Amino acid sequence: MKKIILLFILLYFSSILIFGQEQRKEATALKITESIKVDGILNEQVWAKTQEIFNFIQFEPERGKPASLKTVVKILYDDSFLYVGFLCYDPEPERIAARITKRDEELKDDDAVMVFLDTFHDRRNCYFFITNMLGTQLDGRIKENGRTSEIIWDGIWKSTAQKTDYGWSAEIAIDLSCLKYRPGENKIWGLNLGRSIPRILEESYWVGPLESPQKVSQYGILKGLDLGKSEKKTIIIPHSISKVEEGEKSELEGGIDASYSFSKMISGHLTINPDFATVEADQEQINLTRFELSLPEKRNFFLEGSEIYQQRIRLFYSRRISDIYGGVKLYGKSGVYEFLGLSAQTKKDEVLGEDSANFTVFCLKRDVMKSSTVGFLAANKLIGGKNKGTSGVDTSLYFTDTFQFTG
Q1: CA 47 – CA 32 distance, rounded (Å)
Q2: pLDDT tens sequence across 159-188
Q3: Phi/psi zone of residue 125: left (φ > 0), alpha (ψ -120 to 50 degrees), beta?
């Protein structure tokens, strides 16, 4: 009986490995030197020279079946931008839905097109860009193979669309400076493309059938990328705030935010007296449980690289850090290692009656196998001469697209 059970186990894992080696869809981007006008119309001659991407597959309502309406996508790039052009065929152009105009609003109620870019090709994390026929933008990042996603991240990109006699077309130009990736020749990115048609409740993707649109490990690949090293870039943003009130002494405060890109993969950040008052307010929530709320981080200084310390059992929660005098941070990826070092000095908390404190965090994560990681995190709070800290090791192991272990 033991031999029979062992045989079944071996057959099971063998079948997993066989199915896990399924051939992935491939697309090729064409490098250009001509200029592209992002006007929603793919009328430049260079668009005709690149590969056409089509044969979308339904995710909803009939998963696995061909999309009911044809979609053709073309991809170009130069030293500054990645261009994605969509030709969305529709026999009833007058019924195309286009109403939403606010950035980062949910676009599922409008006809929309989507681009997903796994720029490290680690099959875990990716950027996404979504737009409708009005050019409204929704962008963000998917983390840990779809386990979490957030729209707080805002990329630098252009989007325009036009209604046509065959349906509608859209052009997206993504500024490469807002993405992290490995420069070099013949680089490969993970890629998926999508289209939603709300009036027939259809959502289709280039790769499918998908377990989930956020399942990065199931994406296809984008080849033909020759990406040069970007010049080191320094960004300095000073700010000042004044307060004038009758009968009171006038107040004037200032601060500065600065960042320096050592490469496309490593960047340093400095903030002095940041103005967190301009950050979007949290939505009010009522908590009737014994557990504290987990609110999304929206402050720019803490955003970059925040996914590295968002374990399932969280050892560091940046929202516990209140207003700060300043802070420094280094974040990047080198080879199979991803790292983050952060130190921030808080102001006195008059509400809680706490003195100024220093928060220090160090994270190191290593890629293992194809899409798995092992990480280490250490966090410390220094207040009143006393250290209060924690450290731990975490892992996410993906043996196949559907067999995962985390701890």
Answers
A1: 10
A2: 999 999 999 999 999 999 889 898 889 999
A3: beta
